[in-house]
Design goal:
By secondary structure, the protein is an alpha/beta fold. It is built from 18 helices and eight strands.
């Protein structure tokens, strides 16, 4: 599971400081993305960063904790919420439960053990919810690809769309599938099999981060649903006042064309329009395979490098790669350094920086978005590494 984003809200600066320093948040898979002194500031930060967990005080000026909860729980992706208070006010606790609050903690009872226990419980619950939702979505769309889907309201309820969108004809689906080219030599397909995963990773990054509603104002929202390593679905949700089926088809075509143009790059996706394109693709691919075959890396290090290229956007560790390869971490560390001349961390960092420079050069994303895309929890740390690696700030690289 990716890092869980946390928003802290309390009008007492000492409480915010205590919560921030009480535990090593990153050690448990959490990162604090913002702090606010009242519910109104909290709403602004919530809309900006979309945190997974909010820890909020009940008694605050401008907008109190319960009023804040009432507003965010009606949003598209409501967070998990922990209420804080200095008093044993069970009436407020009951109101919070009605609003969907996860728990209710007394400030004077919070210590390292209490907070850690609560966070680990929430982490487990979020992982279960995410996995359960993904399995339902994958099954629904897998069924949809093989037979007509008659119960649209049933499908929409599982996708957690706003209830006012449960209308026939207001959604469209774009289906992505990686082709399986025919190769003359069996080893060739094994060498480039990871490119399928990489391609889907690019599509996922673009589909989930890009603001399509700004490019296409008739869209109310979008949702990306991965089915497997070779197939995925992109759901277009149209505004309720767009009733013409022809308009929906035209916009869907434009979005599909937008994807095609965006990914018409050799290392991302191959677009074949004629025999010459296929010939050119085959020659370039075969050259890459020859280059790989000339490489003197052992199979284990080649597999380690492929794993890095596929999972660099996650919180990747050498322990995870070693476990995937079925070898010890110490052995992988020595072998990696011996064959590549770099440590595991140096290689991972350099690859992340190359990916970051490519994404920044397109100018489509903000620095914190690029940081998340290449596996960094905070934009501050990403900027520090980028500056050390390139001698430039990420913001300067965009310009």
């Amino acid at each position: 599971m990716n890092t869980i984003k946390v928003l802290l809200i309390d009008d007492d600066a000492l409480v915010l400081d205590d919560l921030r320093t009480l535990i090593q948040w990153e050690q448990y898979g959490f990162t604090i993305i913002g702090e606010a002194k009242n519910g109104q500031q909290g709403l602004e930060l919530f809309d900006k960063y979309q945190p997974d967990l909010v820890i909020v005080d009940i008694y605050m000026p401008v907008l109190n904790g319960l009023e804040f909860c009432q507003q965010v729980m009606n949003k598209k992706n409501p967070p998990t919420i922990i209420l804080l208070t200095a008093y044993k006010d069970f009436e407020y606790a009951k109101q919070g439960i009605k609003l969907g609050v996860s728990n209710y903690l007394l400030k004077h009872e919070i210590d390292e053990e209490t907070l850690t226990t609560e966070l680990l419980k929430i982490k487990k619950d979020l992982a279960y919810q995410k996995n359960n939702k993904r399995m339902i979505q994958q099954q629904l769309f897998s069924n949809l690809l093989h037979q007509p889907f008659s119960d649209y309201n049933h499908m929409l309820s599982h996708l957690h769309f706003p209830p006012n969108l449960n209308c026939y004809g207001k959604i469209a689906l774009l289906f992505f599938q990686i082709d399986s080219p025919f190769f003359l030599l069996e080893p060739v397909s094994k060498k480039i099999s990871s490119s399928q995963i990489s391609t889907m990773s690019y599509i996922k990054d673009f589909a989930t981060i890009h603001r399509f509603t700004q490019e296409f104002p008739d869209l109310e929202d979008t949702q990306y649903i991965p089915l497997n390593n070779r197939q995925s679905v992109f759901v277009l949700i149209f505004k309720s006042n767009l009733s013409s089926q022809q308009n929906i088809q035209n916009i869907s075509y434009r979005v599909a064309l937008y994807f095609q143009q965006k990914f018409n790059q050799p290392h991302v996706l191959s677009m074949w329009y004629c025999a010459a394109d296929i010939q050119s693709w085959f020659i370039n691919t075969f050259k890459k395979i020859i280059t790989i075959n000339r490489n003197q890396y052992s199979n284990r290090i080649q597999n380690a490098i492929q794993y890095i290229h596929t999972h660099y956007d996650q919180d990747l560790t050498m322990e995870e790669v070693a476990k995937n390869l079925g070898i010890s971490c110490i052995y992988l560390s020595k072998l990696f350094k011996k064959e590549t001349g770099q440590t595991f961390l140096e290689y991972l960092t350099n690859y992340r920086m190359e990916r970051a420079k490519y994404i920044l050069s397109k100018g489509d994303y903000k620095v914190y978005e690029v940081a998340e895309q290449v596996g960094y929890k905070t934009s501050q740390y990403f900027s520090s590494v980028f500056r050390k690696n390139t001698g430039m700030n990420p913001s300067d690289y965009i310009r």
